[in-house]
Every structure is written in structure tokens, then in C-alpha cells.
């Protein structure tokens, strides 16, 4: 099995899931999200896993999910925002086309502030988000081949920027790639 074509990392709300789905559609490949894989495997919501067994156990489940996906998913893969915290998970990302979707705090609070489905932002989203980014920013940068800013961009615009950053092309049906010899004439 081949490795993913694109792996998206970045903080909660940066659009990994939304943009990942769009990218998969554009490229005509499958989409996979490790959060969804964990929920399916455990039969429980992420917030319940955090409450029942704690964040450390969630990171173990996440490492297992990332290992399975990088080994057997030749499509677009979105990780959870905290996946990069785990050294073993970071090790699984070496050599892959990883893109860091970045954004500023005000945009993050607008998108996912006080969201109960994301237990790490449930109380004071602005302060918690800043603390998370202080601990994680360098890890996103470390694993990523490219950084794409998402502020003031629609998900479709972010998807375009990801394809540009990785120099991946999509073919619109009916559209043909111009012959470079003709362009020169
Ligand atoms: N570029 C964007 N502009 C505006 N809203 C966005 C953008 N990307 C994602 N969103 C919204 O932000 C929320 C979180 O998006 P999601 O894809 O779940 O992020 P992540 O998977 O990175 O946590 C969703 O409500 C989604 O519709
Ligand atoms: O940043 C984090 O630690 C988390 C991000 C979430 O995924 P998204 O980034 O897709 O929201 C999810 O994995 C869990 O709530 C923990
Ligand atoms: Mg997500």
C-alpha cells in the first residue's frame, strides 16, 4: 500500500477536516481523518475518551490510528490538532507531504471557541488556544514540508494553496493541459 498524497496538520479549527475532504474530492482520491478512525474503533466520542481515560490514552490511540493510515491510505489524511505532540506520531510523518494549516487566535475562536466537541477548548478558548500554540507551533513547523495560512481564506482557497504548495495539479473534466510547445510559439 502506498502512503498518503497529502497529510494535514495544524490547530483545532484550522480546517484540516473540511479542507481535506475538498482536496480528496478534487484529486479523486479517498479522504481519511484519524479522529473519525478513533471514534469508529472505540465506539465512543473523543470527548468521552478524554473524560474516561485522559489525554495520554487518547494520544496512544491516535498514534495507532496515524500508523495505520500512513501505512495504508494513498489519499488525503487529516490528523487531529494534537497529534504532533507525540514523538512516536511525529516519527511516523518523516518523508511525507505534510502541510501545516496555520491561523491566528481570533480566527480560531470564531471557528471553534467554546466547542464542547473539542474538550481542550471548552473553558476559556482564547487563553487555551494561545497556550496550545505556544506548546505546539514549533512541532507543526518541524513536521511540515509547507505552511499554508488559512485566515481570510475560504476552504476552497486553502485547498488551492495546499495544491500549489505541494506542486500537485488537478485536472478539471474537459480541460486539457496546454501543450508547452504551443505556448512557446
Ligand atoms: N477557511 C475557513 N474559513 C472559515 N471557516 C472554516 C474554514 N475552514 C474550516 N472552517 C470551519 O471551522 C470549523 C472547524 O473546521 P474543521 O475542518 O473541523 O477543522 P479541524 O479539523 O482543523 O479542527 C468548521 O465549522 C468549519 O466549517
Ligand atoms: O488539538 C487537539 O489536541 C485535539 C484536536 C481535535 O481534532 P481537530 O484538530 O480536528 O479539531 C481532536 O483530535 C481532539 O479534540 C484533540
Ligand atoms: Mg478535524
Helix content class: 40-55%
The tally of beta strands, per DSSP, is 5
Question: How many structural domains can be distinguished in the coordinates?
Answer: 1
Shape: globular
Level-1 CATH class name = Alpha Beta
Q: Write the CATH architecture name.
A: 3-Layer(aba) Sandwich
Distance between the termini: 43 Å
List cofactors, ions and other ligands. adenosine-5'-diphosphate, shikimate-3-phosphate, magnesium ion
The fourth-level CATH homologous superfamily is P-loop containing nucleotide triphosphate hydrolases
What gyration radius follows from the Cα positions, in whole Å? 17 Å
Poorly predicted runs: 179-185
- Helices, by number, come to 8
- Give the biggest beta sheet: 5 strands, parallel
Give the structural class: alpha/beta
Mean pLDDT: 89
What is the helix/strand order? EHEHHEHEHHEHH
Strand order of the largest sheet: 2-3-1-4-5
- Strand percentage lies at 5-15%
Cofactor: Mg(2+)
Subcellular location: Cytoplasm
Function: Catalyzes the specific phosphorylation of the 3-hydroxyl group of shikimic acid using ATP as a cosubstrate.
Family: Belongs to the shikimate kinase family.
Top keywords for this entry?
alpha/beta; 185 residues; binds adenosine-5'-diphosphate; binds magnesium ion; binds shikimate-3-phosphate; magnesium ion binding; cytoplasm; magnesium; 8 helices; Shikimate/glucono_kinase
Amino acid at each position: 500500500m502506498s502512503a498518503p498524497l497529502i497529510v494535514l496538520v495544524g490547530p483545532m479549527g484550522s480546517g484540516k477536516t473540511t479542507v481535506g475532504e475538498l482536496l480528496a474530492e478534487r484529486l479523486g482520491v479517498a479522504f481519511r481523518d484519524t479522529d473519525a478512525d478513533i471514534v469508529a474503533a472505540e465506539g465512543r466520542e473523543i470527548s468521552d475518551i478524554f473524560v474516561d481515560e485522559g489525554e495520554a490514552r487518547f494520544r496512544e490511540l491516535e498514534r495507532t490510528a496515524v500508523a495505520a493510515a500512513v501505512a495504508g491510505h494513498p489519499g488525503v489524511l487529516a490528523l487531529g490538532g494534537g497529534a504532533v505532540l507525540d514523538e512516536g506520531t511525529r516519527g511516523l510523518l518523516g518523508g511525507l507531504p505534510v502541510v501545516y494549516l496555520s491561523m491566528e487566535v481570533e480566527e480560531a475562536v470564531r471557528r471553534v471557541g467554546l466547542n464542547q466537541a473539542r474538550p481542550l477548548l471548552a473553558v476559556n478558548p482564547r487563553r487555551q488556544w494561545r497556550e496550545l500554540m505556544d506548546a505546539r507551533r514549533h512541532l507543526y513547523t518541524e513536521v511540515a514540508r509547507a505552511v499554508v495560512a488559512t485566515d481570510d481564506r475560504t476552504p476552497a482557497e486553502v485547498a488551492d494553496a495546499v495544491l500549489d504548495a505541494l506542486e500537485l495539479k488537478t485536472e478539471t473534466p474537459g480541460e486539457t493541459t496546454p501543450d508547452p510547445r504551443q505556448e512557446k510559439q
